[in-house]
Amino acid sequence: MRNNFDEETDNVEKSHKNLISTYPMFQDVHVMIFIGFGFLMTFLKKYGLSAVSLNFLVSALSIQWSILLHGFLHPHCEDPKVEWGECPGSKPYIDINLVTLLSADFATAAVLISFGVVLGTTNPAQLSIMAFIELILFNVNEYIGRTHIKAVDAGDTIFVHMFGAYFGLAASRVLYNKKAAESEKAGASQLSDLFSMIGTVFLWMFWPSFNAGAAASGDAQMRAVINTYLSLCACVLTSFATSAMFSHTRKFSMEHIQNATLAGGVAVGATADMILTPVGALIIGSFAGVLSTWGYSKLTPFLSERWKLLDTCGVNNLHGMPSLLGGVLSIIMAAIATRKQYDQFNGDGSDSLHEIFFGLGEDSTRDGAWQAGMQAAAMGVTLAIAIGGGIITGFIMKFVGAFTANKDNRENRVGSKFALSYSDLYDDNGYFHVEEEEESA
Amino acid sequence: MRNNFDEETDNVEKSHKNLISTYPMFQDVHVMIFIGFGFLMTFLKKYGLSAVSLNFLVSALSIQWSILLHGFLHPHCEDPKVEWGECPGSKPYIDINLVTLLSADFATAAVLISFGVVLGTTNPAQLSIMAFIELILFNVNEYIGRTHIKAVDAGDTIFVHMFGAYFGLAASRVLYNKKAAESEKAGASQLSDLFSMIGTVFLWMFWPSFNAGAAASGDAQMRAVINTYLSLCACVLTSFATSAMFSHTRKFSMEHIQNATLAGGVAVGATADMILTPVGALIIGSFAGVLSTWGYSKLTPFLSERWKLLDTCGVNNLHGMPSLLGGVLSIIMAAIATRKQYDQFNGDGSDSLHEIFFGLGEDSTRDGAWQAGMQAAAMGVTLAIAIGGGIITGFIMKFVGAFTANKDNRENRVGSKFALSYSDLYDDNGYFHVEEEEESA
Amino acid sequence: MRNNFDEETDNVEKSHKNLISTYPMFQDVHVMIFIGFGFLMTFLKKYGLSAVSLNFLVSALSIQWSILLHGFLHPHCEDPKVEWGECPGSKPYIDINLVTLLSADFATAAVLISFGVVLGTTNPAQLSIMAFIELILFNVNEYIGRTHIKAVDAGDTIFVHMFGAYFGLAASRVLYNKKAAESEKAGASQLSDLFSMIGTVFLWMFWPSFNAGAAASGDAQMRAVINTYLSLCACVLTSFATSAMFSHTRKFSMEHIQNATLAGGVAVGATADMILTPVGALIIGSFAGVLSTWGYSKLTPFLSERWKLLDTCGVNNLHGMPSLLGGVLSIIMAAIATRKQYDQFNGDGSDSLHEIFFGLGEDSTRDGAWQAGMQAAAMGVTLAIAIGGGIITGFIMKFVGAFTANKDNRENRVGSKFALSYSDLYDDNGYFHVEEEEESA
Question: How high is the ipTM of this complex?
Fold first, then answer.
């Protein structure tokens, strides 16, 4: 019987090396997915158990589905010489190694970003169907973007953050419900804000592992770690400063601290392994913090009122706009990249430029301008698939919701178009047994 | 004066290599012990401080005692050529290296599993004496099982989970008290459930490190990581599904989400480094989730009422039954193991079968059937020592409890046979200074 | 344009090795700074959001400022042969690699220790100015101590813990305000105590990485891990025991469990990489636990009443006194160190003594007594700069505070000498928007 792990996994030396070099970063990313996203979303005062539990369920589902999808798109062969694609004379198989697990975590992040948009206004069945569809489109989009367009995106700013954010926002627009927009439960409490900070801080600390996890081993990976670290540090300062500035009483808002402080990680992602210089990384992070805090303060209320766009976690501010910023930065950095700059400190003769911009290495007529165009193309395709897919998925979720509404409350559900009864919105009681506080007195 | 660290620790190169290859996994396991177990047990609404603090105390005690016990059973010699056992012409000593610390954490896990059974119904003195006795029997049982019976158990399903669970359950049966069974404090609140999820998620994420930490370096360790990861993912899905199915209102129960989702890690432990294939791992995890959820829903109430068996954390469902399942799986996997299967992908000529089933390498007349028998024997011995030792320890704990009851409440303690007064059951106030909420208003 | 990462970062092989050997320990230390310190300080019942958020802000600020300061003191040259100091014929630059980030985290720890002293009685502007000044003095003191005095301090007991503690205590004495000493809000609640335990446990688990992170690679680093681990385990036991002993009702105090259990990591820091022997490490940790618990029980109330010294987190007990103990231990261990002892197990001919006590290797007339003198000198200089600098900084903070008081409450602020209004003391409402609990009902 076929083992289904790849040759590397079954080789003593290679397995040992992979475990040493990749496992710690993989576990950092794993913590970001389950603790980071899970607890970041516990900020709603009555929805903490749902947030962390549904994050757990959706992630476990997404990881498995993503391993299958990735395997279907990138089948392996018995013959070790044929790395990808069709297998002449032998059955293709799905290989599973540490990079597979890491990739599954990245794909899951996109789903969780979309989940953040519709947090508290969707039921578990709707979330499962969303994860199912979104991952298909996510994998197709990433395949097009990386393999065909040859765009580079070490920290998945375009393929994860931009895709997840606009997919979720598009679906949320379709699912819009007035009652949800007016719910008094869609707020935080002092304790739920503190739980949420657990998520924030773990995301913030391990973000360098996220952006560097899939980078080319060596100097590129090291730059990804350091650029992300610097961008995030700068982002904290401008987020706090902007938060106080936007407040009449000059007080900090926890919503900004929990979220905008992370925008620097998103914005720097696509260019993290490039030669940004430390000053460049600091500037990117600083600007991302201002942009994101502005979004939470001014843009989200506007979008909710005028555009009927509910965004529970403010995903547009943390992932959406910073990813657009990051994507544009990747266009600029690609346009100005030169071999001289990338290889000046490489004493060992390695070709750092072509390792990062792998498309340039394949054809000597290609240059930075070509790569810049490819970055723009990948952004366009990503936005098109995300928004188009999100709208369609929103309608499917509406349909699914109508059939899977909580039985007890189906009578009182909010209009015929919506799955959740009014009392279930942003409330653990909808789908979880909650121990009443009165009983504990 | 003797340094007491082993030769490896005092050697520059070896120390460096050991730190790189073992330290990250050791720290993952360390987090499981202190954050994972500690916060998982904070689910009781009035016992959170006690749970995490007593977990801290009992673990720090167990680690030190375990290092000594392990050293007594496995003394080192000045002469580096004599690895284990008696030292001709020189004094034996206890060596301490990263593997020592990792082993101490594993042994501590067994104690914490037993602690989970009697959580809230025992005082610190009783827990300390329990840890003291349990670790002696744990080390003896593991020594018999691994060195003499030559059973294999990479993830310690048999030696840690099965031993800890049935030791604790046996002691709890002896300590049974009707008042504890009827206490209204033995429940959760929304906030305590959220704290508990911190423990759940850290245990779930780092379980691959637990099952792989002691596996043979290389492909066996990689398989242990991947099989455990897959089993846990599948287990989450079936736990959620079964939880909703067992509920009249189709709602999820936090108790199931906090615990049953982890059963896949227990069930796959003994066979994690074997060639289960990914599909095999997924099936094991799926079944473990159903079994564990069923236990929480149906079996625990039954055992409490009919068999007078209190099990505060439902250890029988999370560790007990899944470890029986895992033990049986190790019998089956050993029976069908062949050299051909294990070495097919080992391009480097290493002997993977004999690395995992080390007993087979010692004697060429032994085969899979022999190993299967040894697995069964180790399970039998483990159950016998755990249950017998647990019963005796329960009586000693009863005796100790009578002398160490909280002075202030000794008058009102529950019957002469029991240490804790009724008001101390499942209540931080028994042994911790608690700031009253009224003061905070 | 200059890349500003050092040659190692731009070299494929070296970067890869550095990431493997240093990154996991760096991330452990990172978790200690942001989760460890951040959540440890959430114990105040109404100040949790401020504690974790201001910890986040001050740390992000300190890291960036520290990278600059460290770079100014230790500039790099284009010419890779000139490692430190002036650059003949080329512009010096600041290099940034993993060790830079790790060092920045260590420096930040000193600031956070001082923050713990004045937690709840200072505003964000005062904290920022404190961090700004303290880091200058911190870097100067460490430069004098390590480069000129040639003191050794692997775990930064002297340079981080002693410096941070006495700097903060000196500033706090200057900032003393009677109203703060009498505030009823300066206490904990059951839930805030539980949040605080998240910080305690992460600090406790990862302290071996803190003490070993900067130790010489190989056997010295391994000893730092194991000695710290053992000291911390022993410290837990004596902290619990002493806590119960100092209580009339024989109950444990959460303040002791949260803090005194960590004193073993401070006390063993300066000598962690030396040959303490395991028994030595256990004794150090045991004594540190008793000393720290005694401080919390008896000394802190005395200092507050008689010496007008407020110390919100009891930093003198966790960092101050244990660092004095650790410093004295480093004098003793240096005095008795011999080449024979350090090299007895080094089968590879490396010079372990001179690797640890690097000053001895530079001049063969120097011996253990000389090193002992240098340890004492570094302690003296550290205390002088910390206390002197802390007093001056306290006055500056007073001045800054008067101008940055919360506008809304300036009328009611506590005397003209103090920035915070009475209602803002130990209260999130002072500088953070807090969602009222009433709204959530």
Answer: 0.93
